[in-house]
Design a protein that fits this description.
Layout lengths: L31 H14 L4 H20 L8 E6 L13 H8 L8 E6 L5
């Protein structure tokens, strides 16, 4: 491991492992200064290429415009929610729409547009 240039962490369903936490939970550095250097390197240098960043910015702007069109007071505020249904095999993690709403009702912006991304087949 000491001389390896690349370490691949498998994160697929077939292997029974999932990387559902931050990358640094899987790494350990015996030297705190080295760990800090690594965290700063990732923060400062690993990012999406400009084409993806610009496409994302255009999507956000389009979402704001659509929110303005559908808002009573013409603000561009919107909230987003990612409802994951297929990732977890635990039945307890699959809550119904009414429970989701009751969990978020006090944190979403009143009268704003709500975008929901989901892998659920029952939309």
């Amino acid at each position: 491991w000491q001389s390896t240039k690349v370490i691949h962490f498998t994160g697929d369903i077939a292997s029974g492992t999932r990387l559902l936490i931050h990358f640094y939970a899987y790494l350990f550095f015996s030297n705190p200064a080295t760990e800090l250097l690594m965290l700063r390197f990732v923060r400062d240098h690993l990012r999406y290429v400009d084409e993806i960043q610009c496409a994302a910015a255009r999507i956000v702007e389009a979402m704001k415009e659509k929110a303005r069109l559908h808002s009573d007071n013409k603000h561009d505020a919107f909230d987003t929610l990612h409802v994951r249904r297929g990732d977890f095999r635990v039945v307890k993690a699959k809550v119904d729409a009414n429970e989701i709403y009751s969990n978020i009702a006090d944190v979403v912006t009143p009268q704003s547009t709500l975008y929901i991304a989901t892998d659920s087949f029952h939309r």
